[in-house]
Design a protein that fits this description.
Length: 184
């Protein structure tokens, strides 16, 4: 089995991870996660939660979400079906990439996974009906510590590929970007 290809993103501490599936006449086999290969990014943390999402409609945006300490999490996200534009935003005040965002097309065919450090907000836009995502988290969910940033915060200037639609009430109530958003 080939190793994961880890490509650091322009955002400090974040990465895009790609795998090369093994394929033969039976189908394919693809590595999703390897603690040893990702240890630099996982900072000694282990997997606490694995989640799955299904989004029905093209243009749907979910996010931008994060959890404050002590439930801050490293998150790894992969598209299992469909296509999504996945976005992460650096909220760490002392980071040289504070306030910057990175977007990545995730599909089953490109076998990419986005690796999002603690202190980042995360969201995505659905580009194909019935898109499915698998999330791996290093901290359990805590409603008390959840927060988020508006998907259309003008300070961030995220370039979503499609007009937005089908946002949750929760996401529509999120605040705009500010320096004191993430409680380090």
């Amino acid at each position: 089995m080939d190793k994961l290809t880890i490509m650091p993103s322009k955002l400090q501490g974040a990465a895009v991870v790609k795998t090369d599936p093994f394929e033969d006449n039976r189908g394919s086999f693809n590595r999703f996660f390897c603690m040893d290969e990702l240890k630099e990014y996982l900072q000694g943390k282990s997997v606490a939660v694995i989640n799955f999402s299904l989004s029905h409609d093209v243009g749907t945006i979910r996010g931008l979400h994060f959890q404050n300490p002590p439930f801050a999490e490293i998150k790894m996200v992969r598209c299992l079906r469909g296509r999504v534009f996945d976005v992460m935003v650096d909220l760490r005040k002392e980071s040289p990439t504070f306030g910057q965002w990175h977007g990545e097309l995730l599909t089953p065919e490109n076998v990419k996974m986005i690796l999002i450090p603690e202190g980042f907000a995360h969201g995505f836009q659905v580009l194909e009906k019935e898109s499915e995502l698998l999330y791996v988290h290093t901290a359990p969910y805590s409603k008390k510590h959840e927060s988020g940033v508006r998907f259309d915060a003008p300070e961030l200037g995220i370039e979503w590929p499609l007009p937005s639609r089908n946002l949750s009430e929760r996401d529509l109530k999120l605040q705009s970007f500010s320096k004191n958003l993430y409680n380090e």
